[in-house]
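Re: the 103-residue chain
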Amino acid sequence: MTEPLKAPNHCYSKEQGITLEHYFDRVMGDCKDGCNGRFISMEKAVDTAKESMEKRLDSMNEFRDALKDQASRFVTRTELLAAAVGISTVVSIIVSILMKVMK
């Protein structure tokens, strides 16, 4: 968490020969420096979060590709049913031959 802006450690004083314009320039400069530091910190934090998210998304995409590759190697329902029909036909033929032999 960032620190709140601190009050400037200098004061406006006509007696010290500081003009109001010079005083405000110093105060605004201090504020600008503080804000710039905060923005730089925020940009670093955003960049770090972005890099972390990109790494996470890359590994998620790798996992997704691995699942897609695995799914492409599975037997489809149509192929399985065709094989089951073929096996059923062969079993029926073997059973009928065995029935003839057993008689």
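The chain has one domain: 20-102.
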